[in-house]
Protein 1
Amino acid sequence: MEWVTGNLDLIGSLTLDHLRQSVIAIAAGFALSLPLGWVAWRYRLLRGWVITVTGLLYTIPSLALLMILPVVAGYPATSETNLVIALTIYAVAIMVRAVTDGLDAVDPAVRRSATAVGYGDARRFWAVDLPLAGPVILAGLRVTAVSTISLATVGILVGVTNLGYLFTNGLQRRIIPEVLAGIVAVALVALLIDLLLMLAGRALMPWARAEAPRRSSTAAEAAA
Amino acid sequence: MIEFRNVTKRFPDGTVAVDAFDLVIPSRKTTVFVGSSGCGKTTLLRMINRMVEPTGGTVAIDGEDVASKQAVALRRSIGYVMQNSGLMPHFTVAENIATVPRLTGRTRRAARARALELMDVVGLDTAMADRYPSQLSGGQQQRVGVARGLASDPNILLMDEPFGAVDPIVRAELQRELIRLQRDLDKTVVFVTHDVDEAFLLGDQVAILAKGARRLQFGSPSEITEQPADDFVAAFIGAERGKRALRVKQTPHGPVLVDAEGRTQGVLVEGGA
């Protein structure tokens, strides 16, 4: 505990680095997964390919990816870009499937109804399909966020500094509280982001909460 | 006026849902398509707003082929009410009703005002405006569906078994309400159902359809009851049973009408219209 109180500045700045790297990767992964997931949903023939190929990305060992990417793309392995791009790839691997599943989960009757009252295709996608796919996409995004934040620590092995530093440094110097502080900090960051995503979901999709629990009470009202 | 001229719909798998169908649907009347499920009645309805494109023949509204109109604009100009309401689960009641006005560019405020006005018209408490469809009963959802269909004040209202999924008591209530609405609004209503009683209750004109949308008979409920085109129609409308096969029974208080089971269905009033 003494180590922690004496190094709050270090933990604070590492946490900010960690947050920055993770949040950029999560956001980029989400942005890339929307069109990819849509393509997989819209074009049956491409579906198997897109889902399988993006899913396979997750099987690439992270350390290997962090060392291969700089060679292929020509940036230094120690740059933050290297880690952010690797994390984005893993985020895409999880998110594409969530987007496709989410769009699949939209009731075809609602979609048909939207068309029948005069939504054009593009407008229907943004106003009907995407919001209704929201709960499933959000579930995928929350898994992605937590997994990305935890995975980001591996960056320290190729020299990208973040909360992972507390693990390697703590182990080398045999300071167990430092390692524990790292674990707790990563968990707190993950919980914080997860909480923010959950709150954002509630704010953006108030209808999703109205759906299930009220049903029994409205049935009673109707009977009355 | 909606005209079907030699309309055929053959689906890619080879089934012929509609085979050379001809019909003129008069304006400002309620026309009901009634038939067993799979007879092509819903396909006919969906061809009016181009949800389904015919593979042969034309559908015309006031003499203009619908195929020549832009599909999205056409659909916005025609009210559509479907089974299970078809409401957007993520829109509130008011947003659902305001859908078409919003699509056609009305401001949020104007569209909401219109939605509240329509809630009144269809008999919904405006206190429900900000609830979600899942928080309403089936009958209330169906009223919202009707209000949404009326929101852009269309000349034509298409109704695809709109009361099929609600219980009989609510259904009867909604049917009475629709009759009242139609008296006030005077729309061209095309209504699809498999329920003969509903068809005869609501329709000014009823088309009885068999598989392939083959027209067995088209006429007013009275015409069809008085003179069924053939034995199939007679059986389909139940001419030999229930409250459509009544005989006179003399009682000390005057003549009454009884059905095949001997239950008294009404009193015979002499000299009535």
Note: Residues 214-224 of chain A have pLDDT under 50 and may be disordered.
Protein 2
Amino acid sequence: MNSTPANMIETKNITKVVDTTEGQLQILQPISFNVKAGESVAIVGASGSGKSTLLSLLAGLDEVSDGDIVLDGKALKGMGEEERAQLRGEKVGFIFQSFMLVQSLTALENVMLPAEIAGMHDAKEKAQEILEKVGLGHRGTHYPNQLSGGEQQRVAIARAFITKPKILFADEPTGNLDAANGTKVENLLFELNQGSNTTLVLVTHDNELAERCQRQLHMHAGELTELSNDKDVVENEQLERQAG
Amino acid sequence: MWYKLAWRLFRHEARRGELTIILLAITLSVAAVLSLSLFSERLQSALTERSADFIAADRVLDSRKPVDPTWLENAEENGLNTAHQVYARSMAFANEQMSLVSLRAATPEFPLKGDIKTTDQPFGVGVVTEDTPKSGEAWVESRLFQSLGLELNSTIDVGDMTFTVTRVLSEVPDSGFNVFGGDPKVLISIDDLDATNITGPGSRVTYSYFFTGESNQLDDYYDWLEPNLDRELHRWESVEDDDSAIGRSVARAEQFFLLASLLAIVLAAVSIAVAAQRYSQRHYDPVAIMKTLGASKGTIQKVYLLQIIFIATLGILLGTAAGMLIQQVIVSIVAERMDITLDGWHWRPLIIAVFTGVICALMFSLYPMLKLFSVPPLRVLRRQMGAGLSSRLIQFVAAGGAILLLMWAYSNNIVISLILFISGIVLVASLMLVTYGLIWVGRKLGQGKMGAWQLAWARIQRRSMDNSVQLISFAITIMLLLIVLVMRNDMVQQWRDQLPEGTPNYFMANITETQLPELQTHFSDRDVQVDNYFPVIRARFVAINDEKIRTDVTKEEEENVEREGRDGLGREANLTWSTTLGEGNTVIEGTWLSDEEKTGEFYGVSVESGIAENLNIGLGDLLTFNIGSEIVNVEVTSVREVNWQSMRPNFFFVLHPKSLEGFSPTYITSFHLDKDRKTEITGLMQPFASVTLFDVDARLDQLRSIIDQVSVAVEFILVLVLVAGALVLIAQVQASMDERQQELAILRTLGAKGTMIRASVVFEFIIIGVVAGAMAAVANELALFLLQSQVFEMQAAIHWEFWLLAPAIGAGVVGILGAISCWRLLSLNTSHLLRQMV
């Protein structure tokens, strides 16, 4: 049996270059950083800075142009689409800004989805249990369009945690929510995260949300810098504003 | 687990109505194919059965000598039913008069198919009887009552035996239809045959053995029997393709069924493709989510393939049920008024229908599904990312292949299928070019101020690829609807024209020259309109270019001639003369006989094209006939095509009047007598006992009723095709509405008035409808010309009315459908629209 490595995520000189009509565009400069198991990391930065690209690479949704990513001891390099999907199914959970629930499935069925994909037999019971945890046990039969934004995101959180992933990627999890709902979702996210000792990587604009993470990484024009404390976050934003 | 997920998605999607169009399209195509082919097979087998009635069995073995009894024993051991009849020509005597008769001595089992009809009164209405004459009894045809002055229970002598006439014989199933009047029939029991002593050496006797049974049993029996048969002695007859007027009408209707259901399938398939495309696009997100959550491509494929299997299964089940119900309804309507039983079950239509459902569901959703499978998981973050697959080649290959495969499976004819298919591709390509041209011109004309019209044109041009596809499918849909509509109208009309009111329902033959003036006066006094009188001279056809013709010409020709139901050839030929070309006759080679004197050594003769082909007779050939003791030589000056369905006397040989001068002919003619005057017929014919009368009313009625009923079926198909067409239009409009949603939301958000947006969308659909309608009218004309002239052998005509009607229909239908869909969308408020876009 493998012992959990100290670093849940390791990245080394990862870059992303895309082809455009005007030639090649480097979206990510070489980036290297590690995330320890159970750690929570926020990636902050302006729109277009490359945060989501970085997230997609870390989660194996996209392929790096160069460099290496290792998730829980497994190198993504050389893995095909299928292997990466399998790895995601085993180790990774997701929360998105636009919730990304399957509209034609009920809340309960949406939560069951990753468990079923992973071949868990008690998917329904587990889904119901975790829906209760996020306070939506009574809304299981509702379809996404019958739920409020906050409720949809709570369903998405329940879905993310059902398979007890080692790593959770969250892309602007409160971006589409009002303040009250945003806070509720934040609390829930961190509560569940701590409870299950999941490694959390979240991308956000929201300073308050970023501050709740143990580490903050800042993306600017495809470059990543580590911020040591809260002050740096604020200063960085000021710098960006001046630059913008 | 994936099957649970598939089922769950299927259930929810079905409940939300997302699968309705696909389901309806599959159901419709299966129902159309099943009901039409089942109906057509049942009709065909009913007609075969009816043809079997004409030969009184499924198979007949004719022999010039009695056959080995073991042959019959073997047939019975093989599970076949058998009956036996002996035919002989003989003289009958009564009341000191005599007449040549066709004697039939039958076993009690005769006939195995069809019915003997008898009556108590000469020329009375025949009633079906299960009996055959008992020993000592004779059933005699009405004509013989006339010519021998018979009454019921009087006696008649045939050969050495005296019979009591107990019934008037109206119909025997295997008697055929012969306007030239075979000898009157006398039916007796086979037990009395020997006592007549007429089957001795030198007599012309035919021994017929009748068989019925399952076709495989019959085939097995024939396989066993064939080596024993002697071509000179025996002839094996089976139910041939029905070449009668009824058979041909039904054959043409079947071609129409085939065409219409092919079109219905193509339409249904298009709607499946459109609906599947839409379904696929709506599932880009779920697929991206599932992939992100770790689902493998294989799992996704299984989940969606299973959904297609669910929907195909459901569609096929519903379609089968609907198809059976529909055909049962048609069959019960038809069987109610048509004198044929429509029973029996056929597997082929069911297999083809299920095959159609499967092919439609799989092949037409293949490309949308492949696109769906290629959606990258990254779409969860990059919302604008579509499917990875962009080549449409697969779509064209899959959809084209499927259509070709269905056409082939359905028509059993690769050539016709290829012709239709390639013409279809050419049509689509031309329509595509025209569409691009029109869109370009429209946009140029519409440039300027941004009103509803300009907005509409701008939208059409911006999505020119999508719009071309849409426009073409609208155009093809309208065209197919027009084709089916016009074909139905023209075909039903031509059928009805074939048998107009007043079509002759009686034939008279054997009218002598001396009877002629008297008969003409007699009939006109009684207000009965009689057609032309055709002189007939019985002759023997002896030689072609001095080369002697073998007995009965050849076996094959004899069979052909008999199938046509005309005994005019063999050694005996019925000659007529005229210099006027008869109705329904067309000269295809040479020139028609003129009034002028002969130019060469001989007078001219015009030969019917079928017989000319069979006997290899060409222009300039010298034909020799033997009339009594005279020899008549004539030269072939023309070859005619004859419409045998005209219900008027027609001839294989029409000679120049001069060539038959000096011979005394008999005459034949036809006349129409209304049904309510039917009782007058005995009185009408009374003074002309020797004239042979044929009543073809029953045949005409049967023909009319089949035409009426087939017309009902044709109309029903029109409805099916209309429904299929409507499905395509709805699917297309619905699909394009999804695309429009975002644009509408933006326009609404920017403050565009609802009326303006509505008007622009409706205008857009009207423009598309008009253009599609106009293109459909042109394409329709071309397609109809080809179909009518090449496939249906009908008179092709231009249908000007549709040149105006088609664009109007296009504008109306497409506009209304667009307006309805658009109303629903615009009735939602802007925030709802925007939320739906997320």
Note: Residues 29 and 223 of chain A are 5 Å apart (CA to CA).
